[in-house]
Amino acid sequence: GVQGIMDAYRGVFRTPLTMSYPTKFTEVISTAASYARHEKEVANDEGKLSYTILLILTAGNIEDVKETKQHLIDASKDPLSVVIVGIGDTDFSGMEFLDAFDPATDNGRDITKFVRFNDYKSYNALTEAVLDEIPDQLVNFIMKR
């Protein structure tokens, strides 16, 4: 669960590995979208459905906002949701566009959820916030197909 993810995240800092900057998500979003497409094809061949959720833990703001937004719009045609959790005391105001999807003006569908880890006092509340849009995103994807 969330506790396991957070333990793994904290474990990274007990190794020589450090967080790198600038913060860019475009490559991982494209890779996840490609994976989601592949898994969908495999599932379809077996008469099943497939949906992928990408979880990104970040300690910094996105550096390439326009490019990231375009990658998210491109990925919205795939069976994919992207959950981004901001960890630490960084000012994440630059990430607000992630939750500002407007179907009237934006292309694609809403596939993104951003939450600030420090805004939640319990793992249960964090889990609820992280997952609250996933059911609607999944249903929206299936209904549009």
Commentary on this structure:
- This protein is α/β, with parallel strands linked by helices and 145 residues long.
- Helices cover 43% and strands 13% of the residues.
- The protein has 5 helices and 3 strands, in the order ααβαββαα.
- Strands 1-2-3 form a 3-stranded parallel β-sheet.
- It starts with a helix and ends with a helix.
- The model has no long low-confidence stretch (mean pLDDT 86).
Using the CA coordinates, give the radius of gyration: 16 Å
Low-confidence stretches: none
Order of helices and strands: HHEHEEHH
Helix content: 40-55%
User: Widest sheet: strand order?
Assistant: 1-2-3
Beginning-to-end CA distance, first to last residue = 30 Å
Q: How much strand?
A: 5-15%
In quaternary terms, these chains amount to: single chain
Number of strands: 3
- The number of helices is 5
Structural class: alpha/beta
Overall morphology:
globular
The description of the largest β-sheet is: 3 strands, parallel
Layout of helices and strands, plus pairs?
Blueprint: H1 2-12, H2 26-45, E1 52-58, H3 65-75, E2 80-86, E3 112-116, H4 123-131, H5 134-144
Parallel strand pairs: 1-2, 2-3
